[in-house]
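Render this sequence as a predicted structure.
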Amino acid sequence: MAGTIAKSDRLTCAPSRAARELDLKRGEFDLAVNLGLIRTVPDEGGGGRRVARAEIDRLRAGDGFPDALRERVATAGTHEGAEIMDVTPTRFTSLARFGLLVPVRFHLNRYRTVVWLYLAEELRQFAAEESNARLLTGRMPPEVREGLKAKLDRRPRNWRGRHSGFLLRQAGDDPWAHAAAVASLLDPADVADVVEDPHERDHLDRCRPRLPAHGAPGSPTAERAQKLMTASEPDEVAWFRADLAHTMETARRQHPAPRPAPEPAPHVPAPQRPPSHGLLGWLRRRGRRPTG
């Protein structure tokens, strides 16, 4: 086992070291992994994901390293994004609320206000697309105005949809990892309704991916973040539930959830014949006496 771990350490790197060697901040590294820009491999010791040395060498040999890689994971908030697209912050927010701009990350500031972040590269592409010109200047299209009038805000749902894609990419072909990724975005009550077997739910929890942490566990910040990360719209919940049910069927066929070994049956001593009394007992005792 020690030889295996030593070999793994030579051929792969932990995420923290890989981030340093790629000249990325840890948040930039995690986003690059989510976007599929950095390929990871399972840790043979069961400690999560690692990055192969060959992958680090490939990226370092790329044109424009490290600036080109860093630019692909650069994010922008509302004001920076508005500058990139040459629109007002109000218009930028309207486009995002209507669902035309999809956030890639979020955090909550000290006032527990949600700060949505977008890929700067995608914002430039959106602004450069000729068909989007009517959205950047002049009066907003009627459908956008009606949606905003109805308090429509697709940012949380769009983030969940995008993040589910990240999680499913990491899950690969493992049906349990796929099911756990879907379950992580559902309310526990929905998961229990779809997966009734408690042993299967326990196994899902063990496979559950780590969602972004926001604040101390149990804090108001963490609770609000959890609400944002949990599917809430009826059709969205129905879609995730259907995906979970379908994937669980595959997981059960390929690798049933482990179950605790049955407890051995308690030892029950054989019943002993009670001592005989009276005439029957006297005859039995008499019959055992030696004759002669």
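Summary. The first helix runs from residue 2 to 11. The first strand starts at residue 12 and ends at 13.
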